Structures are given as structure tokens and as C-alpha cells.
């Protein structure tokens, strides 16, 4: 079920807006076991330095963070792949049919199959959910770590706003040669930032600080965007976006995974 979602053109096109990153995920999601294991080890080495004593200066009671520790590694993986499912259910077209939700059984299967990935990334075995109900309970357990915070981006040591620092750095390092990439990011990310919010469960929307007006606007934006969402999933558009956003190695892995998936499930459509 995970590959059914991840290999769909909607995910290939809109995965960035669903959860923010992509190329490094291709070998983790679509590579063979040795490849995925090596990539997971590589990412752990990179993330060992991602740690600190304070998650949010405005809420010191939350404690610190460490990207390679089981809790944070687990939520890094879950916040990759659970939002992708939300996006899929609101964005993915199926032939002439529009987006639709998975059945309860399919959702449970999706969560069970995530367990392989969660173990690979270092999640604690007792926290790995085996159903959507168990995943919901996991959110409840860690609910204090979710939500909007005006102080989340404050750097504890300097008091500076990390988001503002990032914007200034991008402006300082801007070069016209980057325009093509910026245009692509606008096409598949910036213009869908509001519609994607409509795919989130209501309690996540509320926890993120969205008002009723904002939630209503997101639903309308998603509805208005459906013709473009469908157009960008067409083969020609998908191929163009894959070249720009994923690159040749990831494309090879995606195409190989799709072929393996078709062989395993021969009733699937060929395009």
C-alpha cells in the first residue's frame, strides 16, 4: 500500500509541498534493502550533529532534541509519510476519477508497512504503530510537541529568528541562474501551500493555529486548484517535474519501483 501511494504521479509531483524534501528519500523508499540501509546510515551520520537542549525557547518544558534518537527519528519519518497520505487522498487522480480516501483497511495496511521504514530510521519498537488507530494514539502521546509557536524559530543562543536568517541568506546568495529552480518550486510548492492545508485532519489544522476562516479558505483553494492539480499529474507534466525536482538517479529508482509494483500487482493500470 505504501508504494501504491508513493509511486502515484500525485506524490511524485506534490511530495515537496506535502512534507518538504525529496531526492534523498528515493533510495530509502524505492531502493533495495542494502541501498536503503546504507542511505539510512548516511543520514544518521549527517544528523548526529542535529541536537540541542531546547526545542522551543518559549516552552522549555519540552526539553531538548536529537535527530538520531528514537523519538525524533520516528517523528521525522512519520511526518514525511503521513502527510504524503493526506495529500494523496486529496490530490491523486485515478484515470477519470478524482481524489478519494483509502478504505480503513488500506489505511491500516499503509501504517503497518510504514513499520519497515520506521525501524530503518531508528524508531523505538514499542512506539511503532500497527494501525491507524495506534498512529492516532501516538499523536495523542506526543501531542504537546505539535502546534503553532511564535517562538519556535528563535535561536536560543542569539535570540535571532531562524526563518528570517534563512531568507536573508537566500537573498544574499541569489543568482539569476537559480531562477529556473525557483520557478519550478513555485509551480509545485508555493502555489499549493494553501490548498495542501485542506488535506490535513481538522485537529492538526487547529493545532497548527489555523482559524475557521483559514480552514474554509484552504478548502476553497483546494477545490479551485483541482484542474491544475489534475493537469500536473499527466504524463508529460510529471516527466518534466521529475527531471527538475528528482533528478536522473531518483527517476531510475521510481521507474524501476513502478515496474516491480506492476509485476507484483498485474491488475494495476500501466500508466
Describe what you observe in this structure.
- One of its GO terms (molecular function) is oxidoreductase activity.
- This protein has 14 helices and two strands.
- It has 271 residues and is mostly helical.
- The chain has one domain (2-146, 186-264).
- The chain has a two-stranded antiparallel sheet.
- The mean pLDDT is 91.
Put the structure in a nutshell.
This is DUF2236 domain-containing protein. With 271 residues, the protein is mostly helical. The chain is built from 14 helices and 2 strands.
Task: Give the secondary structure arrangement, pairings included.
Elements: H1 2-6, H2 9-19, H3 25-30, H4 33-47, E1 51-52, E2 65-66, H5 70-91, H6 104-121, H7 132-141, H8 162-172, H9 179-188, H10 193-197, H11 202-207, H12 212-232, H13 235-245, H14 248-264
Antiparallel strand pairs: 1-2
Helix pairs in contact: 2-5, 5-6
Class by SSE composition = mainly alpha
Uncertain runs with pLDDT below 50, 5 residues or more? none
Cα(first) to Cα(last) distance is 18 Å
Instruction: Please tally the helical runs, counting DSSP H or I stretches of 4 or more residues.
Output: 14
Number of beta-strand segments = 2
Round the Cα radius of gyration to an integer and report it: 19 Å
Order of helices and strands: HHHHEEHHHHHHHHHH
* Total discrete domains: 1
The main β sheet shows up as: 2 strands, antiparallel
Helix content: 55-70%
Q: What is the topology, as strand order, of the major beta sheet? A: 1-2
Q: What is the global morphology? A: globular
Mean pLDDT figure: 91
Strand content: under 5%
Amino acid at each position: 500500500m505504501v508504494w501504491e501511494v508513493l509511486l502515484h504521479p500525485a506524490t511524485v509531483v506534490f511530495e515537496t509541498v506535502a512534507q518538504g524534501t525529496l531526492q534523498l528519500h528515493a533510495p530509502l523508499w524505492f531502493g533495495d534493502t542494502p541501498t536503503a540501509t546504507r542511505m539510512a546510515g548516511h543520514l544518521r551520520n549527517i544528523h548526529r550533529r542535529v541536537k540541542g537542549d531546547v526545542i522551543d525557547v518559549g516552552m522549555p518544558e519540552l526539553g531538548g532534541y536529537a535527530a538520531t534518537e528514537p523519538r525524533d527519528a520516528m517523528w521525522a519519518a512519520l511526518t514525511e509519510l503521513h502527510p504524503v497520505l493526506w495529500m494523496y487522498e486529496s490530490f491523486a487522480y485515478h484515470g477519470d476519477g478524482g481524489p478519494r480516501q483509502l478504505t480503513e483497511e488500506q489505511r491500516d495496511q499503509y501504517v503497518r508497512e510504514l513499520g519497515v521504514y520506521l525501524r530503518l530510521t531508528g524508531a523505538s519498537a514499542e512506539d511503532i504503530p500497527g494501525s491507524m488507530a495506534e498512529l492516532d494514539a501516538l499523536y495523542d502521546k506526543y501531542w504537546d510537541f505539535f502546534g503553532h509557536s511564535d517562538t519556535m524559530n528563535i535561536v536560543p543562543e542569539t535570540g535571532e529568528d531562524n526563518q528570517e536568517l534563512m531568507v536573508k541568506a537566500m537573498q544574499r546568495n541569489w543568482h539569476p541562474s537559480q531562477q529556473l529552480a525557483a520557478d519550478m518550486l513555485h509551480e509545485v510548492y508555493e502555489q499549493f501551500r494553501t490548498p495542501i492545508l485542506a488535506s490535513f485532519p481538522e485537529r492538526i489544522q487547529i493545532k497548527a493555529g489555523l482559524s475557521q476562516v483559514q480552514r474554509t479558505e484552504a478548502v476553497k483553494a483546494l477545490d479551485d486548484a483541482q484542474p491544475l492539480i489534475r493537469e500536473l499529474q499527466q504524463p508529460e507534466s510529471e516527466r518534466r517535474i521529475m527531471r527538475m525536482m528528482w533528478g536522473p538517479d531518483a527517476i531510475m529508482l521510481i521507474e524501476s519501483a513502478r515496474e516491480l509494483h506492476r509485476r507484483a500487482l498485474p491488475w494495476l493500470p500501466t500508466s
